[in-house]
Amino acid sequence: MFEDRPDLVDRIVSHLRRPVQIDAALDGRVMQEIAQVDTGRRPGAAVAAWRWLIRPRPFAVSPLGALAMAAGLAAVVWALPGRGARAVPPAADAPREFQFVVVAPRATRVALVGDFNDWDATRTPMRASQRGGSVWTAVLPLAPGRYRYGFLVDGSRWLADPAAPHVRDDEFGAPSSVVTVGGS
Amino acid sequence: MKTSPLPRSPKSLVAAGALAAVLVATAAAQDSQDSQHSKDPRLARLDPAARSLVVVVIDSARTAGLPTEPLVQRALEGATKGAPGTLIGNAVRRLAADLGRARAALGAGATPPELEAGAAALRAGAGPAVLAQLRRSPRQTITVPLAVLTDLVASGVPVDSAAAAVLALAASSGDADLIDFRRAVERDIALGAAPTAATAGAAAGFLAAGADAVHVNAGARDARPGRP
Question: Which segments in chain A show pLDDT lower than 50?
């Protein structure tokens, strides 16, 4: 076809014989393209997830958004156990609950009276046990100190607490007991 | 006869009126304050004769700087128990005297609960020297040691034995441990031990107990309501 134009053939041959300059990153690009060629074999979900996780992405945030995130982080750190509001031990003079119990068979009402309620029989009525009825209880918060008290049965009969020290200097002819509440 | 003229200027009249108003208001306020102090509404439960006796004692105690609430409570106790007025008056007067003795032994810085517990300890038979010794123990308050001392004496423990035990324990034990000590002594007495032996045995046990054991017991106590 080109027998009659040998000069053209020479030019083409010389052009083809010239060294070609190849991009140095070509190998990398080629290998990346090869890796992305669908070979029909799907990677596992874990591999896909891992790839998704480690693939770098551009990230941008506004100054206001950055401030909001910093505030949220500070709030989380402050709320960690051991930081911020701590469990405060009760103060030495904080009231403690005391349970008073007395056995009073055949009683229709029992009142706990003492220094802690102005010896007022209406202020601290005791509750009868749900099972029997002869066991009467009352729970009262008491600040540290020493209190005299007694049980008034049916409005007329006085009982001292058999489980507590009795008052030695009873001056009114009716027994009283003593409860001591510690602060430490 | 010549009389001195009264001030006629409006300024003088206004000043004199204001001065009179201030004097009247001050007197009324003072009267009201005194009335409130000496007439605690709770004392209305006492019969008039008892009330007048008690009010005098309470006013004197207040003037002396003694706590008055224990006196009010003692009077109310007598009233609720239906005691005669003279008995109530005597009881309140005796308590006021004990509070004064307690303050003399414990010092002017004693708190009202300390004075009340000190008065009970003195009444039980403890000497002022014991109270003064307890005052010197390194504790924030000595209300509980005084109360435990009183309760031990009431249980039949001789004053000297009770005081020695409480003084030994007060330096190193907390309130809860002192109360447990008292319970241990009372339990041993109820089981038949001699009061002195029960006190010595319990004190030795508490003094020998390690700090860890005391801490564990205190934690168990906190988990439920206390008992007298």
Answer: 84-87
Boundaries of every domain in chain A = 8-79, 96-181
- The tens digit of pLDDT for each residue in A134-160 reads 899 999 999 888 999 999 999 999 999
Q: Do A182 and B179 count as a contact with CB atoms less than 8 A apart?
A: yes
Chain B residues in contact with A87 by the CB 8 A cut-off are none
- A-chain CB neighbours of B120 within 8 Å are 146, 169
Domain contains B204: yes
Task: Report domain A96-181's class.
Answer: mainly beta
Residue B228 pLDDT > 80, yes or no? no
How many CA within 13 A on the CB side of residue A162?
5
Query: Are the CB atoms for B67 and B102 separated by under 8 Å?
Result: no
Nearest to B105 by CA among B130, B82, B87: B130
Are the Cβ atoms of A118 and B153 closer than 8 angstroms?
no
Residue with tokens 């891992």: A50
More confident residue, B211 or B156: B156
Q: Residue A1: how many CB atoms within 10 A of its CB?
A: 5
pTM listed for this prediction: 0.65
The confidence score (pLDDT) of residue B215 equals: 37
Contact A168 B123 (CB under 8 A): yes
B123, B143, B151: residue with CB nearest A178: B151
Write the pLDDT tens digit of every residue in B51-92.
999 999 999 999 999 999 999 999 999 999 999 999 999 999
The helix/strand/coil state of B119 is: helix
Shared domain for B91 and B177, answered yes or no, is: no
Is the Cβ pair B226, A115 closer than 8 Å? no
Counted across chains A and B, CB pairs separated by less than 8 A come out at 121
